[in-house]
Amino acid sequence: SKLSYKKLTAMRIFLSTLCISLFLVYTSGLEYTRYEYRKAKSKESIFRNKVNKCSSICYEFSQVHQRLSCEYECVSESCYNSVYAKDPLEEGEVDIRLSHFKGCVLEEYTRSQKY
Predict the structure, then answer these.
(1) 102: number of Cβ within 10 Å
(2) Which of 68, 60, 115 is nearest to 95 (CA)?
(3) Distance (Å, rounded) from C-alpha 100 to C-alpha 8?
(4) H/E element, 73
(5) C-alpha to C-alpha distance for 85 and 79, rounded to whole angstroms
(6) C-alpha distances in angstroms, 104 versus 3, 56, 57, 87, 114?
(7) How many CA atoms lie within 13 A of 44 on its CB side?
(8) Which helix (H) or strand (E) segment is 81 a member of?
(9) In degrees rounded to 5, what are phi and psi of residue 13?
């Protein structure tokens, strides 16, 4: 049987609302400290240098998410604990917290340069 235009529209609205609700529930469960990070070449260079120094320590991990976790914890244990410890990276996960981690690392770096 054919669905009326009104029923199709109502179903679309319902499904859209359901998807948004599920996304909000999922992201609200992610509890980590948020740090501001604005991308700039100099900041990226500082962060990349720190990660590169840690790469040699973490090379034995074959899984990308395990290697990244190792590198991030090596770069800054306190920032890693603040951003990732409660919910570590998982295989295949899109890392939506990386900019917050970078912000934390660069905040630490800036503080260390003042003293």
Answers:
(1) 26
(2) 68
(3) 40
(4) helix 64-75
(5) 9
(6) 53, 22, 21, 17, 16
(7) 4
(8) helix 77-83
(9) -65, -45
pTM comes to: 0.69
**Tokens 């100099």 sit on residue:** 42
Which token pair is 89? 């990276």
Which residue type is seen at 97? Answer: R
CA proximity to 30, closest of 80, 88, 69: 88
Residue 89 near residue 71 (C-beta atoms within 8 A): no
Both structure tokens of 75: 């770069």
Angle at 65 between CA 21 and CA 41, to 5 degrees: 90
1-52 pLDDT, tens digit each: 567 888 888 888 888 888 776 665 555 555 677 778 888 888 899 999 999 9
